[in-house]
Amino acid sequence: MRKIVIAGNWKMFKTQAESQEFLEGFLPTLQQTPDEREVVLCVPFTDLSALSKNLHGSVVQLGAQNVHWEESGAYTGEISGPMLTEIGVRYVIVGHSERRQYFGETDTTVNLRLKAAQKYGLTPILCVGETKEQRDAGETEFLISTQLEKDLVDVDQTNLVIAYEPIWAIGTGDTCETKEANRVIGLIRSQLTNPNVPIQYGGSVKPNNIDEIMAQPEIDGALVGGASLEAAGFARIVNYK
Ligand SMILES: O=C[C@H](O)COP(=O)(O)O
After folding, report:
1. How many distinct structural domains can be found in the chain?
2. Whose CA is closest to atom 2 on ligand 1?
3. Between 63 and which of 91, 119, 177, 216 could a Cys-Cys bridge form, CB atoms 3.0 to 4.6 Å apart?
4. Among 1, 83, 93, which Cα is nearest to 49's?
5. Is 24 inside a domain boundary?
6. Atom of ligand 1 nearest to the CA of 206
7. ipTM confidence score
């Protein structure tokens, strides 16, 4: 059976004080969450240490938003796998479209980061997805297939989550039609050697569309940006029906 993983990606939002306030609203709502749902908060590096202490003993797992491929070295501004695992981080987002678009992330560096995450005991959440122009040109399948082929070279598919995030649906309120997301995620699964890799949908997931998204047979969770910043809203998403 495939695992369900609901992850919030806070991106560059929330100071430590704000993250603490979020937890006070969010944690009490989780008591009813069924065991098989993994709940993850992928937060800014500066929030990780405090959240790690405050999440201890809760069902929520801690995630980072990037990891370097070396264990240590002269890489100003980067964070390594051992630095993350030491403070209790379990997941890390790799290859988010914002990293690819604004920070020069390539399939080569995504592949290096995926392998390093696994080497140091983290579960990577690999993001793939097409732009509006690529979709309109009928290139969605080719683009995603190429990303997977390059990103997953020598990656262990028994310790991996994939997020299908159509770039045009991120932060726009323009959610991908659920049946279409289900279709693309089915195509992603058909390209994997391990069919049990959890595959999430990401892109304008909200409390009012999560039930329909999670009703799709191929979709194993969600990677949630904006709607994960508000405790009650994210709790509703985590507690989808
Ligand atoms: O990582 C999360 C995605 O970029 C989705 O963001 P969003 O839910 O704000 O559209």
Report:
1. 1
2. 225
3. 91
4. 83
5. no
6. 8
7. 0.99
Domain of 218, in residue numbers: 4-8+37-238
- Identify the CATH number of the domain in which residue 81 sits: 3.20.20.70
Query: How remote is the CA of residue 234 from the centroid of ligand 1, in Å?
Result: 12
Query: Within a domain: residue 173?
Result: yes
pLDDT, tens digit, for every residue of 28-72?
887 655 567 899 999 999 999 999 999 887 889 999 999 999 999
H helix intervals, the chain:
16-26, 45-55, 81-86, 97-102, 107-119, 132-136, 140-151, 178-190, 210-214, 231-238
| Atom in ligand 1 nearest the alpha carbon of residue 97 | 4
3-state SS assignment for residue 9: strand
Question: Ligand 1: which residues within 6 Å by Cβ?
Answer: 9, 96, 165, 170-171, 202-205, 223-227
DSSP 73: S
| Residue entry with tokens 């391990």 | 194
Is 169 strand, coil or helix?
Answer: helix
